[in-house]
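>> received
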Amino acid sequence: MIDSFFEELNSEIKKGVSERGHPFRFITMATVGNETIARLRTVVLREVSEDLLLTIYTDSRTQKIKHIAVNNQVSFLLYHPEKLLQLKVEGTAEIVTDKKRLIETWKNIQPNSRKDYITNTSPGSSLKNPNHVEYVENENYFTIIDMIPTKIEYLKLKRPKHIRALFEKVNKEWKGEFLVP
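>> returned
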């Protein structure tokens, strides 16, 4: 019985990349680094592998990159408002260093979207006028982050009873158990 809930979460996560407008396209990412409070931000889910490796893109100068360098344990929060489905995904973030993968992925990014990775100053820097962002040419700060999930908590809000389950990856296999909602 628990396998059907894992199949649902697996399918819905993958739809975040494959279906236009799916609510799992934009997800919340939490990092800690060496700070005392988690930092949250919305990121775009770019790729999901068959074994649920989750991929996002970012600028290499962001706080999330600094946090991952100190503490690579991260969380993603996904919520589907129509299905009342929440997924909390915990795992290890890896900053991709494979030059070939970075170059090939960069080639497939739309020219207008490339601006997100070529600003003259780093994201979060002070700016006098948002209409006057300066960009660099002939270089970029494009980075790929892969998140290797180790735990996924499933919560379906429904009546008469909510359904909550925890799935943990043990020896490359997902094992699940129901939890009190």
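>> The helical segments are 2-18, 63-70, 99-107.
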